[in-house]
Protein backbone atom coordinates (compact mmCIF):
# COMPACT_ATOMS: atom_id res chain seq x y z
CA UNK A 1 0.00 0.00 0.00
CA UNK A 2 2.72 2.38 1.06
CA UNK A 3 4.65 1.53 -2.08
CA UNK A 4 1.74 2.24 -4.42
CA UNK A 5 1.16 5.55 -2.73
CA UNK A 6 4.76 6.67 -3.14
CA UNK A 7 5.65 5.09 -6.44
CA UNK A 8 4.38 7.86 -8.70
CA UNK A 9 6.17 10.55 -6.73
CA UNK A 10 9.27 8.42 -6.90
CA UNK A 11 8.89 8.21 -10.68
CA UNK A 12 8.74 12.01 -10.83
CA UNK A 13 11.92 12.21 -8.76
CA UNK A 14 13.57 9.75 -11.14
CA UNK A 15 12.61 11.96 -14.08
CA UNK A 16 13.97 15.01 -12.30
CA UNK A 17 17.24 13.17 -11.80
CA UNK A 18 17.55 13.26 -15.62
CA UNK A 19 17.06 17.02 -15.84
CA UNK A 20 20.41 18.77 -15.71
CA UNK A 21 21.41 22.28 -14.86
CA UNK A 22 21.42 24.05 -18.27
CA UNK A 23 24.71 25.74 -17.41
CA UNK A 24 26.42 22.68 -15.89
CA UNK A 25 25.05 19.73 -17.81
CA UNK A 26 26.83 17.06 -15.81
CA UNK A 27 24.81 17.72 -12.69
CA UNK A 28 21.09 17.19 -12.20
CA UNK A 29 18.77 19.69 -10.57
CA UNK A 30 18.25 17.13 -7.79
CA UNK A 31 22.00 16.92 -7.17
CA UNK A 32 22.25 20.72 -7.21
CA UNK A 33 19.80 20.69 -4.32
CA UNK A 34 17.35 22.78 -6.31
CA UNK A 35 14.26 20.62 -5.83
CA UNK A 36 12.42 21.45 -2.64
CA UNK A 37 9.69 18.90 -3.09
CA UNK A 38 7.41 16.93 -5.36
CA UNK A 39 3.70 16.46 -4.97
CA UNK A 40 1.38 14.38 -7.09
CA UNK A 41 -2.33 15.00 -6.91
CA UNK A 42 -4.20 12.67 -9.28
CA UNK A 43 -2.65 13.38 -12.67
CA UNK A 44 -1.12 16.70 -11.64
CA UNK A 45 2.49 16.87 -10.58
CA UNK A 46 3.78 19.92 -8.73
CA UNK A 47 7.52 20.48 -8.48
CA UNK A 48 8.87 23.12 -6.15
CA UNK A 49 12.10 24.58 -7.52
CA UNK A 50 14.56 26.70 -5.55
CA UNK A 51 16.40 29.22 -7.74
CA UNK A 52 20.14 29.37 -7.11
CA UNK A 53 20.68 33.04 -7.93
CA UNK A 54 17.78 35.46 -8.17
CA UNK A 55 18.77 36.79 -11.57
CA UNK A 56 19.70 33.39 -13.02
CA UNK A 57 18.70 33.51 -16.70
CA UNK A 58 18.43 29.73 -16.88
CA UNK A 59 15.31 29.49 -14.71
CA UNK A 60 12.78 29.50 -17.54
CA UNK A 61 14.82 26.84 -19.31
CA UNK A 62 14.82 24.68 -16.19
CA UNK A 63 11.09 25.13 -15.87
CA UNK A 64 10.45 23.90 -19.42
CA UNK A 65 13.00 21.07 -19.07
CA UNK A 66 11.21 19.86 -15.95
CA UNK A 67 7.80 20.09 -17.57
CA UNK A 68 9.04 18.17 -20.60
CA UNK A 69 10.73 15.41 -18.60
CA UNK A 70 7.92 14.83 -16.11
CA UNK A 71 5.27 14.94 -18.86
CA UNK A 72 6.86 11.84 -20.33
CA UNK A 73 5.24 9.88 -17.50
CA UNK A 74 1.99 8.38 -18.77
CA UNK A 75 0.30 8.86 -15.41
CA UNK A 76 0.92 12.59 -15.45
CA UNK A 77 -1.30 14.96 -17.42
CA UNK A 78 -0.15 18.30 -16.07
CA UNK A 79 3.07 19.61 -14.56
CA UNK A 80 3.33 22.73 -12.45
CA UNK A 81 6.67 24.22 -11.54
CA UNK A 82 6.64 26.59 -8.60
CA UNK A 83 9.64 28.78 -7.80
CA UNK A 84 9.97 28.99 -4.04
CA UNK A 85 11.52 31.78 -1.99
CA UNK A 86 11.65 29.75 1.17
CA UNK A 87 13.85 27.82 1.79
CA UNK A 88 16.58 29.78 0.03
CA UNK A 89 19.20 27.98 -2.01
CA UNK A 90 22.55 27.74 -0.32
CA UNK A 91 25.57 26.04 -1.82
CA UNK A 92 25.60 23.40 0.92
CA UNK A 93 22.42 22.00 -0.61
CA UNK A 94 24.54 20.39 -3.37
CA UNK A 95 24.57 16.64 -2.69
CA UNK A 96 27.68 14.49 -2.27
CA UNK A 97 27.12 13.00 -5.76
CA UNK A 98 26.67 16.49 -7.16
CA UNK A 99 29.94 17.63 -5.62
CA UNK A 100 31.81 14.70 -7.18
CA UNK A 101 30.26 15.29 -10.61
CA UNK A 102 31.20 18.96 -10.50
CA UNK A 103 34.82 18.01 -9.91
CA UNK A 104 34.73 15.64 -12.87
CA UNK A 105 34.05 18.56 -15.21
CA UNK A 106 36.66 20.74 -13.57
CA UNK A 107 34.42 22.81 -11.34
CA UNK A 108 35.34 22.92 -7.67
CA UNK A 109 32.38 22.43 -5.33
CA UNK A 110 31.94 25.13 -2.71
CA UNK A 111 33.62 24.54 0.64
CA UNK A 112 31.31 22.86 3.13
CA UNK A 113 29.95 25.02 5.93
CA UNK A 114 31.16 28.01 3.96
CA UNK A 115 31.02 31.28 5.73
CA UNK A 116 30.80 34.44 3.69
CA UNK A 117 33.90 36.15 4.92
CA UNK A 118 35.55 37.11 1.71
CA UNK A 119 38.12 34.96 0.02
CA UNK A 120 37.65 31.30 0.70
CA UNK A 121 40.00 28.37 0.38
CA UNK A 122 39.39 25.79 -2.23
CA UNK A 123 41.06 22.67 -3.58
CA UNK A 124 41.93 22.29 -7.24
CA UNK A 125 39.37 19.92 -8.87
CA UNK A 126 42.11 18.53 -11.15
CA UNK A 127 44.98 17.74 -8.80
CA UNK A 128 43.49 18.30 -5.34
CA UNK A 129 46.12 20.86 -4.39
CA UNK A 130 45.11 23.48 -1.84
CA UNK A 131 47.59 25.94 -3.44
CA UNK A 132 44.98 27.88 -5.40
CA UNK A 133 44.47 31.57 -6.01
CA UNK A 134 41.22 33.44 -6.53
CA UNK A 135 41.37 35.26 -9.88
CA UNK A 136 37.87 36.67 -10.00
CA UNK A 137 34.96 36.22 -7.60
CA UNK A 138 32.76 36.56 -10.66
CA UNK A 139 32.90 33.90 -13.35
CA UNK A 140 31.03 32.86 -16.49
CA UNK A 141 27.76 32.56 -14.57
CA UNK A 142 26.45 34.29 -11.46
CA UNK A 143 27.05 31.23 -9.30
CA UNK A 144 30.69 30.61 -10.27
CA UNK A 145 34.12 32.15 -9.60
CA UNK A 146 37.46 31.76 -11.37
CA UNK A 147 40.53 30.29 -9.64
CA UNK A 148 44.03 29.33 -10.66
CA UNK A 149 45.95 26.31 -9.38
CA UNK A 150 49.57 27.10 -8.54
CA UNK A 151 50.47 23.40 -8.50
CA UNK A 152 49.10 22.01 -11.78
CA UNK A 153 48.82 25.46 -13.45
CA UNK A 154 45.21 24.97 -14.48
CA UNK A 155 42.66 27.72 -14.30
CA UNK A 156 39.36 26.37 -12.99
CA UNK A 157 35.92 27.44 -11.87
CA UNK A 158 34.38 27.07 -8.44
CA UNK A 159 30.82 27.33 -7.21
CA UNK A 160 30.53 30.38 -4.97
CA UNK A 161 29.58 29.68 -1.40
CA UNK A 162 26.27 31.42 -0.76
CA UNK B 1 5.18 42.87 18.77
CA UNK B 2 4.52 43.97 15.21
CA UNK B 3 1.83 42.10 13.36
CA UNK B 4 3.11 39.56 10.85
CA UNK B 5 1.81 39.18 7.32
CA UNK B 6 2.69 35.84 5.80
CA UNK B 7 1.16 36.13 2.34
CA UNK B 8 0.17 38.83 -0.16
CA UNK B 9 -3.47 38.01 0.61
CA UNK B 10 -2.95 38.71 4.31
CA UNK B 11 -1.19 41.98 3.54
CA UNK B 12 -3.96 43.04 1.18
CA UNK B 13 -6.51 42.66 3.97
CA UNK B 14 -4.85 45.54 5.80
CA UNK B 15 -5.15 48.49 3.45
CA UNK B 16 -2.97 50.84 5.45
CA UNK B 17 -0.15 48.33 5.76
CA UNK B 18 -0.42 47.31 2.13
CA UNK B 19 -0.15 50.89 0.89
CA UNK B 20 3.02 51.45 2.90
CA UNK B 21 4.44 48.11 1.79
CA UNK B 22 3.82 48.88 -1.88
CA UNK B 23 5.50 52.26 -1.52
CA UNK B 24 8.59 50.64 -0.01
CA UNK B 25 8.66 47.89 -2.61
CA UNK B 26 8.73 50.47 -5.42
CA UNK B 27 11.67 52.22 -3.77
CA UNK B 28 13.56 48.92 -3.50
CA UNK B 29 12.74 47.78 -7.02
CA UNK B 30 13.39 51.11 -8.74
CA UNK B 31 16.71 51.68 -6.95
CA UNK B 32 18.02 48.29 -8.10
CA UNK B 33 16.60 48.73 -11.60
CA UNK B 34 18.34 52.03 -12.25
CA UNK B 35 21.57 51.02 -10.53
CA UNK B 36 21.64 47.92 -12.68
CA UNK B 37 21.01 49.95 -15.83
CA UNK B 38 23.91 52.28 -15.04
CA UNK B 39 26.08 49.22 -14.41
CA UNK B 40 25.08 47.74 -17.76
CA UNK B 41 26.35 50.88 -19.48
CA UNK B 42 29.86 49.90 -18.42
CA UNK B 43 29.76 46.70 -20.45
CA UNK B 44 32.85 46.53 -22.64
CA UNK B 45 34.29 49.69 -21.11
CA UNK B 46 35.65 48.42 -17.80
CA UNK B 47 39.37 48.80 -17.03
CA UNK B 48 40.07 45.14 -17.80
CA UNK B 49 38.24 42.05 -19.00
CA UNK B 50 37.90 40.42 -15.57
CA UNK B 51 36.21 43.58 -14.38
CA UNK B 52 33.84 43.43 -17.32
CA UNK B 53 32.88 39.91 -16.23
CA UNK B 54 32.53 40.93 -12.60
CA UNK B 55 30.53 44.09 -13.19
CA UNK B 56 28.23 42.26 -15.63
CA UNK B 57 27.54 39.59 -13.01
CA UNK B 58 26.83 42.21 -10.36
CA UNK B 59 24.55 44.01 -12.77
CA UNK B 60 22.76 40.79 -13.66
CA UNK B 61 22.27 39.93 -9.99
CA UNK B 62 20.99 43.43 -9.26
CA UNK B 63 18.54 43.30 -12.14
CA UNK B 64 17.40 39.96 -10.71
CA UNK B 65 16.77 41.64 -7.38
CA UNK B 66 14.71 44.35 -9.07
CA UNK B 67 12.75 41.69 -10.97
CA UNK B 68 12.05 39.84 -7.73
CA UNK B 69 10.67 43.00 -6.13
CA UNK B 70 8.49 43.77 -9.19
CA UNK B 71 7.23 40.19 -9.04
CA UNK B 72 6.26 40.76 -5.42
CA UNK B 73 4.45 43.97 -6.41
CA UNK B 74 2.57 41.93 -8.99
CA UNK B 75 1.53 39.53 -6.21
CA UNK B 76 0.27 42.55 -4.28
CA UNK B 77 -2.04 43.39 -7.18
CA UNK B 78 -0.07 46.23 -8.76
CA UNK B 79 -0.11 44.80 -12.27
CA UNK B 80 2.29 42.77 -14.38
CA UNK B 81 5.90 42.82 -13.16
CA UNK B 82 7.39 43.57 -16.61
CA UNK B 83 4.95 46.45 -17.12
CA UNK B 84 5.86 47.89 -13.72
CA UNK B 85 9.52 47.88 -14.68
CA UNK B 86 9.08 49.36 -18.15
CA UNK B 87 5.82 51.13 -18.72
CA UNK B 88 5.30 53.54 -15.86
CA UNK B 89 5.70 57.27 -16.37
CA UNK B 90 9.03 58.70 -15.12
CA UNK B 91 7.27 60.56 -12.29
CA UNK B 92 5.90 57.25 -11.01
CA UNK B 93 9.38 55.86 -10.30
CA UNK B 94 10.54 56.10 -6.68
CA UNK B 95 14.27 55.62 -7.08
CA UNK B 96 16.81 57.80 -5.29
CA UNK B 97 18.63 60.54 -7.21
CA UNK B 98 21.99 58.87 -6.52
CA UNK B 99 21.22 55.88 -8.75
CA UNK B 100 20.09 57.90 -11.77
CA UNK B 101 23.22 60.01 -12.35
CA UNK B 102 25.10 59.37 -15.57
CA UNK B 103 28.38 57.44 -15.45
CA UNK B 104 30.31 60.41 -16.80
CA UNK B 105 30.56 62.61 -19.84
CA UNK B 106 29.47 61.50 -23.28
CA UNK B 107 27.30 58.51 -24.02
CA UNK B 108 27.64 54.77 -24.40
CA UNK B 109 27.48 54.56 -28.19
CA UNK B 110 29.50 57.60 -29.25
CA UNK B 111 32.13 58.75 -26.79
CA UNK B 112 31.76 57.27 -23.34
CA UNK B 113 34.15 59.35 -21.29
CA UNK B 114 33.06 57.60 -18.11
CA UNK B 115 34.64 57.97 -14.70
CA UNK B 116 35.75 54.67 -13.19
CA UNK B 117 36.51 56.34 -9.88
CA UNK B 118 32.91 57.50 -9.70
CA UNK B 119 31.72 53.99 -10.58
CA UNK B 120 33.66 52.59 -7.62
CA UNK B 121 32.58 55.31 -5.19
CA UNK B 122 28.91 55.28 -6.18
CA UNK B 123 28.64 51.50 -6.23
CA UNK B 124 30.45 51.09 -2.92
CA UNK B 125 28.18 53.73 -1.39
CA UNK B 126 25.04 52.20 -2.81
CA UNK B 127 25.96 48.65 -1.81
CA UNK B 128 26.82 49.76 1.72
CA UNK B 129 23.41 51.39 1.99
CA UNK B 130 21.74 48.38 0.39
CA UNK B 131 23.31 46.07 2.98
CA UNK B 132 22.04 48.25 5.84
CA UNK B 133 18.55 48.28 4.32
CA UNK B 134 18.62 44.49 3.74
CA UNK B 135 19.65 43.94 7.36
CA UNK B 136 16.43 45.72 8.35
CA UNK B 137 14.28 43.92 5.77
CA UNK B 138 15.45 40.51 6.96
CA UNK B 139 13.17 41.03 9.96
CA UNK B 140 10.34 42.50 7.91
CA UNK B 141 6.77 42.04 9.18
CA UNK B 142 5.97 40.99 5.59
CA UNK B 143 7.34 37.43 5.44
CA UNK B 144 7.87 37.25 1.64
CA UNK B 145 10.02 40.39 1.86
CA UNK B 146 12.03 38.95 4.76
CA UNK B 147 12.65 35.80 2.70
CA UNK B 148 13.65 37.84 -0.34
CA UNK B 149 16.05 39.94 1.73
CA UNK B 150 17.77 36.85 3.13
CA UNK B 151 18.21 35.50 -0.39
CA UNK B 152 19.43 38.79 -1.86
CA UNK B 153 21.92 39.31 0.96
CA UNK B 154 23.78 36.09 0.10
CA UNK B 155 24.48 37.47 -3.37
CA UNK B 156 24.90 41.10 -2.43
CA UNK B 157 27.71 40.19 -0.04
CA UNK B 158 29.95 39.63 -3.07
CA UNK B 159 29.00 42.95 -4.65
CA UNK B 160 30.00 45.01 -1.65
CA UNK B 161 33.11 42.89 -1.23
CA UNK B 162 34.08 43.50 -4.85
CA UNK B 163 33.96 47.30 -4.61
CA UNK B 164 35.88 47.07 -1.36
CA UNK B 165 38.70 45.27 -3.20
CA UNK B 166 38.95 48.18 -5.66
CA UNK B 167 39.08 50.69 -2.81
CA UNK B 168 41.64 48.63 -1.01
CA UNK B 169 43.95 48.39 -3.98
CA UNK B 170 43.58 51.89 -5.42
CA UNK B 171 43.60 53.85 -2.19
CA UNK B 172 46.96 52.27 -1.45
CA UNK B 173 48.50 52.84 -4.89
CA UNK B 174 49.26 56.27 -6.37
CA UNK B 175 48.44 59.86 -5.45
CA UNK B 176 46.42 60.14 -8.64
CA UNK B 177 44.24 57.19 -7.63
CA UNK B 178 43.69 58.62 -4.17
CA UNK B 179 42.88 62.10 -5.47
CA UNK B 180 40.43 60.71 -7.99
CA UNK B 181 38.73 58.50 -5.42
CA UNK B 182 38.37 61.39 -3.00
CA UNK B 183 36.87 63.50 -5.78
CA UNK B 184 34.54 60.62 -6.71
CA UNK B 185 33.28 60.28 -3.14
CA UNK B 186 32.78 64.04 -2.95
CA UNK B 187 30.66 63.84 -6.10
CA UNK B 188 28.73 60.82 -4.78
CA UNK B 189 28.12 62.72 -1.57
CA UNK B 190 26.17 65.42 -3.43
CA UNK B 191 23.42 62.82 -3.89
CA UNK B 192 23.92 60.51 -0.94
CA UNK B 193 21.14 62.06 1.16
CA UNK B 194 18.63 60.93 -1.47
CA UNK B 195 19.10 57.34 -0.26
CA UNK B 196 17.68 57.99 3.21
CA UNK B 197 14.72 59.90 1.84
CA UNK B 198 11.71 57.65 2.46
CA UNK B 199 9.45 59.75 0.26
CA UNK B 200 6.12 61.48 0.90
CA UNK B 201 4.78 58.46 2.80
CA UNK B 202 7.78 58.25 5.15
CA UNK B 203 5.70 58.32 8.33
CA UNK B 204 3.43 55.54 7.11
CA UNK B 205 6.44 53.36 6.26
CA UNK B 206 7.92 53.80 9.72
CA UNK B 207 4.57 53.34 11.49
CA UNK B 208 3.94 50.11 9.59
CA UNK B 209 7.18 48.77 11.06
CA UNK B 210 8.68 48.38 7.59
CA UNK B 211 11.75 50.60 8.02
CA UNK B 212 13.40 52.65 10.73
CA UNK B 213 13.25 56.41 10.22
CA UNK B 214 15.35 58.02 7.50
CA UNK B 215 17.43 59.68 10.22
CA UNK B 216 18.18 56.34 11.81
CA UNK B 217 19.21 54.81 8.47
CA UNK B 218 21.34 57.88 7.82
CA UNK B 219 23.16 57.61 11.16
CA UNK B 220 23.88 53.91 10.70
CA UNK B 221 25.11 54.54 7.17
CA UNK B 222 27.33 57.50 8.04
CA UNK B 223 28.93 55.68 10.97
CA UNK B 224 29.69 52.70 8.76
CA UNK B 225 31.11 54.81 5.95
CA UNK B 226 33.22 56.91 8.29
CA UNK B 227 34.94 53.83 9.59
CA UNK B 228 35.36 52.30 6.13
CA UNK B 229 36.76 55.39 4.42
CA UNK B 230 39.17 55.97 7.31
CA UNK B 231 40.28 52.34 6.90
CA UNK B 232 41.05 53.02 3.24
CA UNK B 233 42.84 56.26 4.12
CA UNK B 234 40.36 58.25 2.10
CA UNK B 235 39.09 61.70 3.04
CA UNK B 236 35.75 62.05 4.79
CA UNK B 237 33.51 63.92 2.34
CA UNK B 238 31.73 65.68 5.20
CA UNK B 239 28.16 65.88 6.39
CA UNK B 240 25.86 65.20 3.43
CA UNK B 241 23.62 68.08 2.44
CA UNK B 242 19.99 67.74 1.39
CA UNK B 243 19.39 66.93 -2.27
CA UNK B 244 17.21 69.41 -4.14
CA UNK B 245 14.62 67.16 -5.75
CA UNK B 246 13.20 63.97 -4.25
CA UNK B 247 13.45 60.98 -6.54
CA UNK B 248 11.25 59.12 -4.06
CA UNK B 249 8.56 61.70 -4.86
CA UNK B 250 8.93 61.12 -8.58
CA UNK B 251 11.07 64.17 -9.30
CA UNK B 252 13.73 62.93 -11.67
CA UNK B 253 16.35 64.47 -13.91
CA UNK B 254 16.43 64.48 -17.68
CA UNK B 255 19.15 61.81 -17.41
CA UNK B 256 16.66 59.51 -15.69
CA UNK B 257 14.04 60.03 -18.38
CA UNK B 258 16.63 59.22 -21.07
CA UNK B 259 17.81 56.12 -19.21
CA UNK B 260 14.27 54.88 -18.76
CA UNK B 261 13.47 55.41 -22.45
CA UNK B 262 16.50 53.35 -23.38
CA UNK B 263 15.81 50.67 -20.80
CA UNK B 264 12.22 50.15 -21.92
CA UNK B 265 12.82 50.48 -25.65
CA UNK B 266 12.92 46.77 -26.42
CA UNK B 267 9.96 45.95 -24.21
CA UNK B 268 7.88 48.64 -25.88
CA UNK B 269 8.83 47.32 -29.31
CA UNK B 270 8.24 43.68 -28.44
CA UNK B 271 6.15 43.21 -25.29
CA UNK B 272 6.20 39.44 -25.79
CA UNK B 273 9.94 39.28 -25.27
CA UNK B 274 11.21 37.96 -21.97
CA UNK B 275 13.74 40.07 -20.09
Please, could you describe this protein's structure?
The complex is a heterodimer of chains A (162) and B (275). Chain A is α/β, with parallel strands linked by helices and 162 residues long. In chain A, strand 3 (35-41) and strand 4 form a beta hairpin. In chain A, 24% of the residues lie in helices and 27% in strands. The mean pLDDT of chain A is 89. Chain A has helices at residues 2-18, 59-71, 96-104, and strands spanning 20-21, 24-28, 35-41, 44-49, 78-83, 107-108, 132-136, 144-149, 155-159. Chain A has a four-stranded mixed sheet with strand order 6-9-8-7. Chain A has a three-stranded mixed sheet with strand order 3-4-5, covered by helices on one side. In chain B, strand 1 (104-105) and strand 2 form a beta hairpin. The termini of chain B are far apart. By secondary structure, chain B is mostly helical. Chain A binds chain B through residues 53-57, 60, 85-86, 88-90, 116, 118, 135-142, 146, 160, 162, and chain B through 50, 53-54, 56-58, 60-65, 67-68, 143-144, 147-148, 150-152, 154-155, 157-158, 161-162, 274.
